[in-house]
């Protein structure tokens, strides 16, 4: 039995496993509706393993030893994580960066990093004997929860803004989840999901609310270090919305440092689109607080939040790592979707390609050197929002089934 406690990221209060469920009750008293979450809890395992797992972190037994779980049997039977760290030679040549890797998390079962959080949350729901798990989502967390819940035989109820990309909604519905389309923002969906969980007794998976989401996402960092021959990179570029994935990456590396298996943390670079850049702006302006973005918008729909819920923890961890924030335009993000696909074979959704756009900005600003060992976290598949790619990639006209027509169509190509 892996013993653990919860630690409040804001006031430092400690809670036993049975003493807290979502956030620190002391800090939550100053919570404002729709605002940054107060009192986000993190998980602290009493005994971390002191050796690297020989089988790699994607083996259930190895993974369970690093997670707050009673045993490997508690994990739903689904191949989450264990995604490749690609050396990307053509992208390296294009950017003049010989030590660049892509962590292709689009290969998770539902196509995004959110599966890592859902795997742990669903395992805890089973342990807590809850048969229904709910969450609010801009799309990916909804499909991830629905996917893992389907494999485990739990009911999923997901609250999603009605304007989320249709592919994400149809994917979620296909897994058999109860889909609640909300005429409103992600923040509206978040508040509604919390109220529904309180009313109906469901378990809530919301990010920056359920502490196991950060803990589940830490496996991304554990795998990166194991795949880099048991070492940390110099920097990891992470697309940032509400700041939970970047906190998960920080938690994974921090646990490896605490276990004595890594000498240091990598610098974390938080990449955000200019229409939804509250965390990156606070980093760049050396502010302790977040200014909410009214009318947040971007082609990178997964990153659009007015008040990033996990901002307090994300800001602290990015700063402590010696990293920083970069802000990129929607045009740069869409260009990065194409550049990544053409040079690596990885088709990323705009939110995920924000990592590549962010890398180029970070190099231009001197936050990252071209000789450094850098990893891009590609957090979601392009198939989730293929219409976004259509804004830069054009389809050719149809031709009759004749060889001459093929020659005419391709003739200008050298
Ligand atoms: Zn607290």
What is the topological layout?
Elements: E1 4-8, E2 14-16, H1 25-28, E3 41-45, H2 60-65, E4 85-86, H3 89-95, E5 100-104, H4 114-127, E6 132-136, H5 140-152, E7 155-161, H6 166-174, E8 178-182, H7 186-200, E9 203-204, H8 212-217, H9 219-227, E10 235-239, H10 244-258, E11 267-273, H11 278-284, H12 311-320, E12 324-328, H13 330-344, H14 350-364, E13 374-378, H15 386-389, H16 403-410
The chain binds zinc ion.
- Give the overall silhouette: globular
Bound molecules: zinc ion
Strand order of the largest sheet: 4-5-13-10-11-12
Mean pLDDT figure: 94
The strand count comes to 13
Unreliably modeled segments: none
Tell me the series of helices and strands, N- to C-terminal: EEHEHEHEHEHEHEHEHHEHEHHEHHEHH
Helix coverage percent of residues? 25-40%
Q: How much of the residues is beta strand, in percent?
A: 5-15%
Count of discrete alpha- or pi-helical segments spanning 4 or more residues: 16
The major beta sheet can be summarized as: 6 strands, mixed
> If you compute it from the alpha carbons, what radius of gyration comes out, rounded to the nearest whole angstrom?
21 Å
Structural class: alpha/beta
Kindly, what is the distance between the CA atoms of the first and last residues, rounded to a whole number of angstroms?
63 Å
What report would you give on this structure?
With 414 residues, the chain is of the alpha/beta class. 38% of the residues lie in helices and 15% in strands. The chain has 16 helices and 13 strands. The strands form 3 sheets. A 6-stranded mixed β-sheet has the order 4-5-13-10-11-12, with helices on both faces. Strands 8-7-6-9 form a 4-stranded parallel β-sheet, with helices on both faces. A 3-stranded antiparallel β-sheet has the order 2-1-3. Strand 1 and strand 2 form a beta hairpin. The mean pLDDT is 94. The structure holds zinc ion. The site of zinc ion has 8 residues, from helix 1.
